[in-house]
Structure prediction request, 392 residues.
Amino acid sequence: MINKILPKITFWRVVGVSIAIFGIYSIIERFVYGLGAVTNLSDEFPWGLWIGFDVVCGVGLAAGGFTISAVAHIFHIKKYEPLTRPAILTAFLGYAFVALGLIVDLGRWYNIWHPLIMWNPSSVMFEVAWCVMLYLTVLFLEFASYALEKFNFNKILKLIRKALIPIYILGIILSTLHQSSLGSLFLILPTKMYPLWYSQYLPYYFFFSAIAVGFSMIVFESYMSSRAFGHGLKFSLLSEISKITMVFLSIILAAKVIELIATDKIQYLFIPVTETYMFYLELIVGYIIPIFLLSNKELRTSRKWLYISSVFVISGFMLNRINVSITSIQRSAGVDYFPSAQEIGISIFIVTVGVWVFKLISNYFPVFEHEIEEGENDHAENVSVEGILANK
Prediction:
């Protein structure tokens, strides 16, 4: 009887529960005793992991929602519509947990509602706050149509579907604004950021890299969902959208190289300091390797290598965001910042809860309209549901 009630104990469930316990404890400790008790932040370095990873990375990693909506619904390339539902769900959960991370990071978190009535249109942070709030609302409306479909609320569903095109357009506009505005936040730090990362084109770099990583996130989540949850998407579509990722990565890399040469910052590439090594790591992991993998048709049409390339793109993206928001500022701040165990624990806990919620919703709502086609070229492995069960 007990075995029927309690879930089977596995290694990853034990890890997940451990992360949850430590994360919840750390969040309670943070709100009871304040930021100083659980973080390594200071007046000299007030923005740490929760901004660099939870917010700056989190918003970018959720960009798949607006990118695939633009391709499928605005440009009317209908064959990509099967990719929209998981992408929008990922974006919705991503922005929701970005908001949670922001609340945890704010010193006076109970004042988070102030932008609603205390307007400051000249502030970039004010614009980001409003865009995130509005876009989260848009994503909720987009996903609401799937929930209404599940419960057969046809009358309300019909009304929402009539408004979906304006909603999609609004979502794309809002995403464009705040993805680029996150880069604009750092334009006020020309003397504080290390020269390899400071650029007047940061808003463009942030926007283009969000587009690139948005499509890679669709590939990544499809692969992981097929392995873990038994869901998947058409591999042929995933292979096609990876070409868009390659194009945008190539544009960003070329622009960075040209800017380094034109602004005479290339000299910093030969200074043996931590910033130089981190910049090289970012270029190699986030641009050179994935561009090579995605430009090779044989590798791009292999499910395994397409997944590997998406891992490189996502890792390089996170490296860039953390380098911009943390690594580039440490030298001018005069402190060596490394996140505390509680900072790391809360961030991992937020990501873990996001995965749990994604699994729960995908099991009960029509997120994956089209499963992986059998017989698709994978060059190495069969990740259909039957193949997974057979391997187990």
